Amino acid sequence: FGIFADAPLRPIPHVFQGRMRVPAIAAPMFLVSGPDLVIGACKAGVAGTFPSLNARPASQLDEWLGRINAELAEHRERCPDAPCAPYGVNLILHPSNPRVPEDLALLAKHKVPLVITSLGHPGEVVKVVHDYGGLVFSDIIHAYHAKKAIAAGVDGVIAVAGGAGGHAGTQSPFSLISEIREFWDGALVLAGAISDGASIRAAEIMGADFAYMGTRFIATKESMAQDEYKTMLVDCPVSDIVYTDAISGTNANFMWPSLEKAGFRREDLAAGAGKGKLHSIADEARAWRDVWSAGHGVATIHDVLPVAELVERLAGEYAAACALPPSPALVRA
Distances from the Cα of 333 to the Cαs of 4, 24, 326, 327, 330, in angstroms? Predict the structure, then answer.
């Protein structure tokens, strides 16, 4: 990747080395990410991921993992010199998810290269995944949670900063990345309104190793999002992104037109509207089918593309950003 010659080199997990077109991960998105999106992203050189709960029932997860492993192995054999990124699965550790033990066993059976944990302590997952040689990244919104995940033995931290889609934090990416880098020199991923190659490069310069891109990959041909969802994402300005806990009891970013269509009023979405709610995973799934998430990255998303075409564009933008030197007219030696 494009790293300044005088920048400190950090060890990147070997599973990513030489296999990426750009240092980016297509984030796992509830009811949106599936095998087509994951396989397309990996073949193009971006790590593709999906939540295990998108495969229903658990037997479908077994089928999805078998298909992904087979198609990526066939691609690597057919195109040995082309980038083929690793894939990952997001495991929701919230107590309301009864599938955790069964899903974790399937991840171990298929030796999933990257497991991403959310909404819970990753300790048990770390033990299982490390036993077969996989990696565990944990997503967090505060440095406090990053320290707990690191203490549990994770291999990477995903900093979900303000402006990200889904269950996002509110802390500035500049602040969050800098704070975590004070105590963590391992793999670090940044999420939050990253929609182009220049932003990927900016995340690196800030101290991240990878960019985490969700919203941009909703607007692809291979995503499982409804066509109306993709069109709304392209059409929405940032002013239509609403941060609320009214949907599931946990703050997340959603598009106002979908909230309005689902019958919500602005006063229903005020901070604390969902306080005390304890939704089950099933309840949340029903809610998110009709209420659509997106992050501040909608500001620069204007089209729906095949994944391969999107990654090609990102690679060009990233290369151009890497070639930009500091302005000598503004910066004194």
Answer: 16, 32, 11, 11, 10
Strand 241-244 with 114-118, pairing: unpaired
Q: How far is CA 44 from the centre of its chain?
A: 16
Helices (H), the chain: 35-44, 58-78, 100-109, 123-131, 143-151, 173-181, 197-206, 215-218, 227-235, 256-261, 281-290, 307-322
What is the secondary structure of 84-121 as a DSSP string? ---EEEEEE--TT-TTHHHHHHHHHHTT-SEEEEESS-
Kindly report, residue by residue over 150-169, the tens digit of the pLDDT: 999 999 999 999 999 988 99
pLDDT, position 230: 97
Task: Please give the single-letter amino acid code of residue 104.
Answer: L
Q: What is the pLDDT of residue 250?
A: 82
SS3 letters for 170-214?
A: CCCHHHHHHHHHCCCCCEEEEECCCCCHHHHHHHHHHCCCEEEEC
